[in-house]
Amino acid sequence: MTSSNTPYKVCAFYQFVALPDYRELREPLRACCAGLGLKGSVLLAQEGINGTVAGAPEAIDAFAHELERGDMFGGRLDNLELKFSAAEAMPFGRLKVRLKKEIVTLGDAAADPTRQVGTYVDPHEWNALIAAPDTLVLDTRNAFEVAMGTFEGAVDPGITSFGQFKDFAAERLDPARHRRIAMFCTGGIRCEKASAHLLARGFGEVYHLKGGILRYLEDVPEAESRWRGECFVFDERVALGHGLRERNKDVTRDE
Fold first, then answer.
1. Residue 15: enclosing H or E segment and its boundaries?
2. Which reaction is the catalytic activity of this chain (predicted)?
3. What are the residue ranges of helices labelled H in 21-101?
4. What is the DSSP string of 203-255?
5. What is the largest CA-CA distance in the chain?
C-alpha cells in the first residue's frame, strides 16, 4: 500500500530463476538503481534475485518496469514477486548490490524452488487453512521476528538464522505425523526454500502463504485477521502493521 502523500515508495521483490550471468548483472543493476536514486539491498545469485529498495514513487515504478520488461534481464523475471509499501523517511542508508551463493541461505542443495515448491495459498484463503485442526502452522522466521508478531497457533522453530531450519525440521518434523503443513514468512522467499526442503524429505502436503505476511497484512481486513502483533522488516521502519502502516519506531533490533 502506498499513498500519494508519502514521499518514499518501497519495493520488495524476489524470484528463483536461473541466472548463470549473475556476476555480469551486478554492475548494470547497481548503475540502474543509482541512476534512479534508489537505496536498499539487492542480492544476486545463480538461483535468482532478492531485494528491497526505496526511492521516489516514480523511480520505483521505473525500476520495477526494468526488472520485469527491460533489456537487463531479457524477460527472465517473468514471475517476479513484487510488493510495494510506503515510508515517511528513506528507510535505507545506502545502496548495496551483492553477489551470493544463495539468495536466501539454507545450505541444502536438494531444496531447489525452480524444481518444486509447496502449494501457494492466497491470503484470503489462509485463515481457513490454518484454522483446520489437522494443519500444523509453521513460522519459518527467526525467533526475534516471531516475538514481535505471528499467526494464532503458529509453531515457533526457535531458530536464530534461517540456515538452522533444516536442523529444526530433522529434529521436530515427521512426514508420518505432520501430514499437512502451512508455513509463512515475511515476504514469501524463505518459504520457497523451506517448502522445497520439506518436499524433498518426503512431506506430502506443504502449503505456504503467497506473498508472505506482508501481502496478508495488505489484503486481509484487520477485522478478519488472525495475525497478532507486528511484522518485523529489515529496514529503518522496523515493523509494519495491518495495511502495511509503519509501527513501533522505538523497537531495538536484535540481529
1. strand 8-16
2. uridine(34) in tRNA + AH2 + O2 = 5-hydroxyuridine(34) in tRNA + A + H2O
3. 22-35, 57-69
4. -SEEEEETTHHHHHHHHS-GGG--EEE-EE-SSTT-EE-GGG-EE-TTPPP--
5. 53
Residues with a known catalytic role:
185
Sign of the alpha-carbon torsion through 64, 146, 192, 51? positive
Which triple of cell numbers denotes residue 207?
A: 502449503
Round to whole Å and give the CA distance between 14 and 123.
18
Element (H, E) at 129: helix 123-131
Is residue 251's pLDDT more than 60?
A: no
Query: E-assigned strands of 17-134?
Result: 39-45, 48-55, 81-87, 95-99, 119-121
Q: In the numeric block, which cell numbers belong to residue 71? A: 533489456
All three cell numbers of 179: 501430514
- Check: CB of residue 164 under 8 Å from CB of residue 106: no
Output phi, psi for 136, to 5 deg. -90, 115
- First-to-last alpha carbon distance for the chain, in angstroms, is 27
**Which one is predicted more confidently, 67 or 243?**
67
Three-class DSSP category at 70: coil
Query: Contact, 85 vs 244, CB < 8 A?
Result: yes
pLDDT of residue 252: 36
Three-state secondary structure call for residue 199: helix
Q: For residue 240, what pLDDT band results from cuts at 50, 70 and 90?
A: confident
Per-residue pLDDT, averaged over 146-155, amounts to 96
Q: Are 234 and 52 in contact (CB under 8 A)?
A: yes
pLDDT at 84 over 60: yes
